[in-house]
Specification:
By secondary structure, the chain is an alpha/beta fold. 41% of the residues lie in helices and 15% in strands. Helix 1 packs across helix 7 and helix 4 packs parallel to helix 5. The relative contact order is 0.14. The model has no long low-confidence stretch (mean pLDDT 97). Bound molecules: nicotinamide-adenine-dinucleotide (NAD) and 2-amino-3-ketobutyric acid (AKB). The site of nicotinamide-adenine-dinucleotide has 27 residues, from helix 1 and strand 9.
Length: 316
Amino acid sequence: MNIVKEKILVIGACGQIGVELTTELRRLFGSNNVIASDLRDEHELLKGTGPYVSCDVMNKEMLHVLIIRHNITQVYLLAAILSATGEKNPGLAWHINMQSLLNVLEIAKEEKLTKIYWPSSIAVFGPTSPREHTPQHTIIEPTTVYGISKYAGERWCEYYFTHYGVDVRSLRYPGLISYKSAPGGGTTDYAIEIYIQALRDKDYQCFLSEETYLPMMYMPDAIRATIELMEAPKEKITVRSSYNLSAMSFSPKEIGQSIAKHIPEFHLTYKPDFRQQIANSWPMSIDDSTAQADWNWKPHFDLDMMTEDMLHNLKA
Ligand code: NAD
Ligand code: AKB
């Protein structure tokens, strides 16, 4: 990988993705070239690994000053309200998810930043999209406020690229599974809780039903995909809204079976709540052939490899 020297700002660096992405960016670009920022206190795993700035992305003036003062060239915008939390407060989710992106895109345009990364989600798809191997381009009618905000965000990204030449890149992440930083209120969070509970109590009550298939990915694959997309030559990027991205699909029952190979006494029960309706509106699997063709995307982890790694690291 040919890494050019850049000064990077990660917004939302203390979240589930932010902690691991910041750590990897610091490894690649040098600790002092990656500034972590968030509303929250600095995450334990980031302390001592590089600069940290407290910043509210909704405060455009403060963000603009931060970007100028630190000679930032790239921004990774990770601050957002996720699906389950979003349904509890739709107005706030819309406001934060949209205004944060517009603030960053406007500053990127004005300051001619080299690259912007902003994640979308499989939540852009709705009940009228094909549910299996959902294609890159298809019917997109999301029914959650989170999905609506992600779809609108994708349109804004393409708009800023087409009209102002802002090199903004994006992935439609599936549900991400990790053990370093806690998840932030999504519908796919059960696939993290299940590992923690399997080790702690050998028992888990899942908030989705046993046959609910959703697209999922282990965090190391997601971090690698993000950096591979950002480092791909500009001419290879044919999608300026957001790329479909896929690794695996499984149901709660299947992840339970995978865990039971290591913890035979693991007991899994189901009590679906409001998140079931969200999951029912999302794809069961994703066709990411455009990402494969454009920048050679290929996942590494399958369900059993992920289970082994999750249990091993959570135990440690
Ligand atoms: P998260 O909730 O774990 O982290 C978001 C971080 O943003 C938090 O640390 C929060 O304190 C911070 N934040 C919130 N409001 C802020 C503000 N006003 N100013 C500055 N910081 C603020 O979320 P995540 O799981 O790390 O997701 C990051 C991005 O990836 C989001 O856009 C999310 O929609 C997207 N995504 C995540 C997943 C997943 O499974 N985790 C899947 C698809 C897409
Ligand atoms: C959520 O469940 O909200 C996220 C996502 C798939 O975007 N994990």
